[in-house]
Structures are given as C-alpha cells and as structure tokens.
C-alpha cells in the first residue's frame, strides 16, 4: 500500500511539474504577447543627483589597488579616484589609470523570449563589457557616444547576472586620444552617463528615423528584422499624448530590414525656436491579423531646413540668423555627468539671453539636453569630437558618425551636423551622415570654408565684410568673440551684430562659450580649478553665476530692436523699432512704460512709480520696422527715468530698456542752507589751506589746490589727493582763496598752452580750472574745466585717492548693477543700485557678481560706504559721466603677451582710486585687442575742438 501511495504521489508531482512548466511557458508567451512596448530598467542611477553603487577597482592614483564602491554614473575623479588632467597636459605625465566595475542584476523569467539589450549612454574611454563572464561585443572606443549590446543569449533568467566593465581612461586608438584627450577641455574617466536594459518583444522595431516636414508630410524609415511584421501603423498625438489622428500610411519600400513609409498630418503647427511645437508620433508594426507586435513613441516637430547656396539658411521658409553659443556638457561638482534639471537650467539661461541656437562643443551632449532644446526652442549644431590635426582614423570615424546620427536623428532642434572641430575633420566620412540621416541635413566643417558655408573662427570685425573670393558663402562663425575673464562675449557684440544683422549672407554666429568650465577638485578640498586662463571662457560662472556680458547679450540679441533714444525737453514720446523675430508678429508681444522718480542716497525707499501705462506696439510682421509712442503724463518731467519692459508670447521678459530724463539731472544736489557768517573759518599755514565749517575741516594744498584731508569731528574721511586732472601736464598759474559771507572759494588756474595747427596761425588753449566752493552748511562743490583734446588716447576727467581697505560698499543712481566697458555699454539699467564690496576677478576667483570695482556709467549720485563710518555722498550734474570705483585686480594673463596685447583683458585704469571721467577703455577677448573688434573698441575719443573745455560739476557731502 505505501508503495502504491508513493507511486501516486510521484505521478501527481510529475503532472504538477508539467502544469507548472506549461504555466511558465504560457506566462512567457502571454508576456511576449502583452509586452508590445519596450521596457527600460536602469542598472545605474539616472543622473548626477541619482547614483547607484557598483563595486569598483582603480588601477592607479587615489584610492587605487583595492575593491570598493563607486556611484554610477560618475566621473571617477569626482568620486575620489585616480588623477586629474586637462587636455593640454603633457602626455608623458598624463594619468593612464583604468577602472573595473562589477554589478549584479536580476533577469526575470518573463524576459525570456524577448530581446534584451544593454545600453551605455557614455563611457570614458574604451569600454570592455562582459555579461556572466562572456564578452557582450567588441570593445567600444569613443567617450561621447551611446552604444549597446544584444545580451538575450548571455542572461541567466530567473537568476542574478554579473555585469563587468573594464574602462580604460586612455584609448588604444591614438586618433581618439588626440581628439578627446588632447583638446582644450577637462578629461575624465569612468561610466559617466546612465546604463540601462532595454527589454523589447522578439518581433520589434529596432529604431526609426523620421523626417517631419513643415508641410505635415512625414517620411519614416522603420528598421525591423521581424518576419511576422506585415504592416506599419502610425498615430499622431499632441505633446501630452492626446490623440489627434490616425495617419494613413503609404509603404514606399521594404528591403534589408528597413521599411520606408510616408504619411501626412492634417492641421499641424510647425516647430521653431519661438514656438517649439511638439507632437508624439506612435509607430507600430502589425502582423497579418493587424495585431500589434511592437509599439514605440517618438517626439517630433514639424519643420523644414534648407541651405540655399549663396543665399542663407532657411527654416520653414524663413531665412534665419543664429544668435548662438557653444556649450560643454559639464557640471563643476560632477564633471561630464549632468542631469536633465541642469540641462533645463542652462537652456533657460540661453533663452533668457534671447539666444536661439547652441553648438555642441565639441561632442554630442546628453540626450536630455537635446530633449530640452526641442521643448524650449533652440537650434542645434550637433558635433562629433575631433581636435585639430591629426584627424580621426576613418574606421573609428565612421562608427562615431553612425552612433551620433542614429541616436540624435529625430530631434527637430538639430539643423546641422558638424564633422569635428578646427581641422580635425575627416572628409572621408562627410557622406556618411546621409547614410543614417533621413533628413539629409547638411554637414559643416567648423573653422573652414566648406561647401556652402564659411564658419571662420575669431575673425576681426573688419573681416565680416566678407569681400574675399569666398564672398558667396553663407557666413556664420561657429566661434567668435572668445570670452575670457571679463573680456569678449558682450564686449564687441553690438558692433559685430550690427554687421551680421545687416549682411545678407550672414547667418549670425556662436559665441565661445557658455560657462566657465571650473571643476571642484576632490584632491584639493573641492577648490574650483579653471586651469588658469584655459577654462575661464564663460558668460556665466561654473554654477551659472551671471557675468555682466549676460545682460549685454540679452539686450543686443533682443528680438525687439529699439533705436537709441534720449529724453530731454524736446522728447515727443516716439520710438522707432524693428521686429527682429523670425516667426513672431509684434501683436504677440506686450510692453509696459513706467515713469519713475528715484529717492536720494539716504532714503530707504529707492523709487516710486509716477505713472504706468500699456504701450501699443505696431503689429509688425517679422523683420519689418515701425514706431510706437509712449504716453507722456502731465508730470513726466518730474520723473528721473523711463523704463520700457517687453514681455514675449510666453510671458517671459525680453528686456527692460531704461532712459534717464535729462531735465532732472540736478534734482539731487543737496541745497545750500543759509548759516550765520561765523560758521565758516579759513586760515593758511605750512602751505596748507584749512577751511572749517560746522564740524568738518577741509585741508587743501596751497601749492596745488588738491584736497589733502577731510576731517569730520574726530574721524578722518580718507578722500584725498584730488582732483588730479588726468592727462594734464600744464603748470599752475595761480591759486586764489576767496572767502565771502557764506562760502569760501578756492580757484586753481592753469597756464594757457599754445598749439600751431598746420592750417592756421599759433593759437592758445583755454586754461584748465579747478574751483572749490565750501558752503557754510558744510557742502563742498567742485567745478573742474579741462580741455577735451581731439582724438585723445587717454582719460579725460579727474581722480582722487581713497584706500580700498576702507571701502565697504556703494549705493548709487546710475547704470548698473554691472560695470561697463566702452565696447560693452548695453545691458545695464538706470536706477538706484547697491553693491557690497567684493574683490572678484571675473571668471577666475570669487564668482561674486556684480563685480564691485570698475567703471559705472550715467552717474547721478553715489554713496560710498566706509568700513568705519567714513564714507561720503557725491552728486554729479554733468551728463554722461562715468564713475571709476577702485581698480580691479588683474586677471591671469599669458606671460608671452607683450605691449598692447598685455592689456587686452586688463585695460588701463586712471591713477588714484575714485575717478570721474568722460571716457573709458574697451576690453578685448582671448585672441583680440579691443580696437580690432569694431568702432566701440577703438581707443580714440573725440571731444570736440582742441580748445573746447569740458565742465565737470560735483557736490560732496560728508
């Protein structure tokens, strides 16, 4: 009996096993049938802020020689491993470590029968991948390119699987090392972009390439090796997934695993940077029974790109101009590992500067950055990584071109491909782009005259005339106005853009570059390292800190261009403007006018709005001109400024223009009070003139008339040694002290000098004059008259001394909050500003903006805050006066530079510490002096005839 029972139990168990196997097989079949979409399972984290720990071993450098943990994705230097290198480092001393990674993951049984691929979005540099001890495929070379392996046959289903990756920081391919590791940027090692598994049905769409035209026509290559696939279905939805229509699909061809199909959407909105309309295209392959085998969604934008020879670059029929910038994929804390949030932040800053384009420098970016360009609206030049000569070898270049185009082909933002950078182009692969790009976008060679384009780098202003043998080429420098420290970018841009905008064959250009590439060195207590002058090229700092050029660019590249205007007694309220949008009518833009009155330096409330009104802009179509009128309220002349704020169709500020009201210039000067005669005393001894009034004692030199000391009670106000008239060598003829009932005047008269122009007889210059007036209520007036000097190449104005270590801050009414240069005047706003003292060297140290020291335009008054309550107020009644506040520390220069080149990024400043001047210098770029960057950077200034006198009128209040 027991034997029978035992036999029965065995039979039951066998049947149960058969039932279980059948159930598992059925469940796998059901999974395969139900799983019509690709599933994604991340093995790493998703970005710099979300890491997953893997086992890790570093061969050399820090934390090497033992197995430990590392967060993935990451650059291993930022996790404390290995050593740092910049591309220009000596190859003999460059770090050559490798890293070993291990990670286990579960492959569920239900994956069996599906196609599983492992995807690496980016590894630096050579990657050897094993699954359960078996190579997944050939070693991948190239840091910036997505690659994947089919691993279905290597997995143990229902069990843990071992992923092993060996990453060599230095490639076995020397052309890749030259392209990626000898270039002018930081080089890192590691699995720095995400790693994930793609699980798709066995019968699947491998990939698609889509060409969605502005007409609504969609031409698509569908790649599949499925023998069950009989037809293709397409559905168009909006960006949120709401179905719009089922598309009628025409099959054009089918061969070698590629189907070409076409269709046409009905009513669609086109994609452009001003209105980046996006749609979701669902693509499905069906079997003969019309059952879905595999379904994928792709985000698309309808747009048509045409490069017309000797004409221009057209998008949706409109000839465009690039207002562009170059951008590295980089974060100061995590290196090349970034995040979508960081991509959004940087793209939003570009859009805020009124840019419409970005060049990928010098490699394909994270895919999420391209997604952001699609959604926010930026034209993109996508580029493979090469660097000067020698070029990439052809075999690896072909692979890299394919990987770039296959990954990025469907982004509407991409309108051009760049085959490398600055002579690194391999012409043998120019035609390879078309093999993978259904849109057949044009290929350019940055820094070259190639095919239809001239993408010259760092041309001088005058070369933009483009009158050489290549004058029929479409001109757009893929790098220009190379920023370094505070130079370039905004400096010179107004001049360049005036030429670019009005030159028919100019398609704009791309500034170098977006952000300072400073890395937090984990081997130096997280100190920011910019490799001296090599990586300090940004418009913004490492963490997005805005430099002054940020706002200059915002104004110069405003799609609403307003002619320069001055508001005086004859102001009629009329402004002339131009619509510099490509796709937006001005009826989609709003503008507000505010007439503003400002308070004085000692008031807590800085301003009040006297009147506010809506400005009716003319309904101008793109690229047309017109005018608008600002309403003048009855009390408009009581205002000190008019502010005009334009808001675009998406609710974002385009720019706020400000216009001082010149009729109110002397409003702020404090009034002279009537005081008893005994309140002011004067005596002269030891070659010094002492004037005591109230509790203030002024001391002047009897020999020079310069202010030597101000003493208020027992406290010294350390403003002294002025006014020195800059660039003035005349001798003093006489000094006169004239006391009267309620004031004391000190007059300094300089000798007249003679000149003999070739066309005239000998003449005399008018005399320079300094006039001090000390009033009985303690106010100190200063009136200086000095020669203008025609074509002067130095400063005109006056200067004083004030010890920098006594300065705590400044409040002022004038243009701000950023300093200006002669060739970077735009981007400021006239109002009350307040900056604390800082010693920032732009792009090099501090990164506290605005910088405190420099030249500030349109001065009306300034309150200098002393550290020991020893500051003062000064009021300026002379229009267009610049305040010079201290002298910025010099940025790091190239020691090879000599003469004029030595000051291209560190312009000369007047002697002294605080100056009031009528002219200021321009600033250069990394490669150019300011005088080669256009008229505004020229160092000559015209002040009228040689015998004209400029009057500078100030009042000091201590």
TrEMBL record:
<feature type="domain" description="Glycosyl hydrolases family 2 sugar binding">
    <location>
        <begin position="67"/>
        <end position="199"/>
    </location>
</feature>
<keyword id="KW-0378">Hydrolase</keyword>
<dbReference type="InterPro" id="IPR006101">
    <property type="entry name" value="Glyco_hydro_2"/>
</dbReference>
<dbReference type="InterPro" id="IPR011013">
    <property type="entry name" value="Gal_mutarotase_sf_dom"/>
</dbReference>
<dbReference type="InterPro" id="IPR050347">
    <property type="entry name" value="Bact_Beta-galactosidase"/>
</dbReference>
<dbReference type="InterPro" id="IPR013783">
    <property type="entry name" value="Ig-like_fold"/>
</dbReference>
<dbReference type="InterPro" id="IPR014718">
    <property type="entry name" value="GH-type_carb-bd"/>
</dbReference>
<feature type="domain" description="Glycoside hydrolase family 2 immunoglobulin-like beta-sandwich">
    <location>
        <begin position="214"/>
        <end position="303"/>
    </location>
</feature>
<dbReference type="GO" id="GO:0016787">
    <property type="term" value="F:hydrolase activity"/>
</dbReference>
<dbReference type="InterPro" id="IPR006103">
    <property type="entry name" value="Glyco_hydro_2_cat"/>
</dbReference>
<keyword id="KW-0106">Calcium</keyword>
<comment type="similarity">
    <text>Belongs to the glycosyl hydrolase 2 family.</text>
</comment>
<comment type="subunit">
    <text>Monomer.</text>
</comment>
<dbReference type="InterPro" id="IPR017853">
    <property type="entry name" value="GH"/>
</dbReference>
<dbReference type="InterPro" id="IPR036156">
    <property type="entry name" value="Beta-gal/glucu_dom_sf"/>
</dbReference>
<feature type="region of interest" description="Disordered">
    <location>
        <begin position="889"/>
        <end position="908"/>
    </location>
</feature>
<keyword id="KW-0326">Glycosidase</keyword>
<protein>
    <recommendedName>
        <fullName>beta-galactosidase</fullName>
        <ecNumber>3.2.1.23</ecNumber>
    </recommendedName>
</protein>
<dbReference type="InterPro" id="IPR006102">
    <property type="entry name" value="Ig-like_GH2"/>
</dbReference>
<dbReference type="Pfam" id="PF02837">
    <property type="entry name" value="Glyco_hydro_2_N"/>
</dbReference>
<dbReference type="InterPro" id="IPR006104">
    <property type="entry name" value="Glyco_hydro_2_N"/>
</dbReference>
<dbReference type="InterPro" id="IPR008979">
    <property type="entry name" value="Galactose-bd-like_sf"/>
</dbReference>
<feature type="domain" description="Glycoside hydrolase family 2 catalytic">
    <location>
        <begin position="311"/>
        <end position="525"/>
    </location>
</feature>
<dbReference type="Pfam" id="PF00703">
    <property type="entry name" value="Glyco_hydro_2"/>
</dbReference>
<dbReference type="Pfam" id="PF02836">
    <property type="entry name" value="Glyco_hydro_2_C"/>
</dbReference>
